[in-house]
Amino acid sequence: MDIYWIQDKQRRGPATVPDVIALVQMGELTPDTPGWHAGCTNWRPLRELPALADFLGEMTDKSKGAAPLPPLPPLPAAPPQEPTRPVVDINITINQPTGSNINPADVRLPAPWARLAARLIDSSLYAAIAAALLSLTGLNYNDMLIPLFWLPMVFLEAILLSRRGTTPGKRLMGIAVSTVGSAQQLTFRRALVRSFAVNIMGMGCYLFPICVVTISMSYFLLIRRGLAIWDAQSLTLPIQIRKTGIGHYIAAAVIMYAMAQITAFSLLHMPGTLETVEQISPDTAKQLRELMPNLPGSSSHTPPSADTPQPLQ
What we know:
The protein is α+β, with helices and mostly antiparallel strands. It has helices spanning 17-25, 53-56, 90-93, 112-137, 146-164, 168-172, 188-202, 210-225, 229-234, 246-268, 273-280, 282-291, 298-301, and strands at residues 3-7, 10-15, 34-36, 44-45, 175-179, 236-240. It folds into 2 domains: 3-65 and 75-83; 104-268, no CATH class. Helix 11 (273-280) packs across helix 12.
């Protein structure tokens, strides 16, 4: 969505939602700067625009207070044929992740599908490692423990983002996360807030079918507004620091498939998993017992064959 605004008594824009948010965070604009986008009937403060309300709604221009709007130029009738977007020096205002050498010309917002692929890679890698460790402990599988299963990932992701600026999945997809308009690196506290928000509002604590709803809504809002809610809340911004191609997506698919196999194998060897599967699909549980007779719980549910001697009555 294209945003227009008034600066130095001149109409500026258009710019995307993320561009305007970045300009506000850098101090180039204020939340009370008059703005407009399609669907609005008049100029209003940027924080009151429907497309920006979720991100700037609670921000105010403390230096000017709630001063009335000055006389404004007429509203744009339609976007110009060749719009000129504002140039933002991202190399200066956005912190570079550790160990990276960012070329400002290559920096842009990552595509929604690239962000989704990075999230699924990180989730599959963590699930495989965590499931393998749990299977060695002999703990019983329980659906109610799924949020606790994913809780360590929240802290692990926050550590990686605060120290490296990226995660394995994001690194493969050429994505880094940084702060905007700040001289400090992404702190652990800010990364932790972001990670909690992602796993609750974005992934629905991985509880089915809640996760399907939250993932779909987050993806829709990301496509529509260009910036995720958790990034707006934690004042972080994902940036595409390296181009990705079809090979990166193929590698992502291979990694996710391999990690899914490891996760399934590990979970099936946890006590209680077969009983949970049997409650959902008895036929699937029966097939698993026949294919993998050594699984925990298989022997106690295997019916005796015709050749097995029966005890005398």
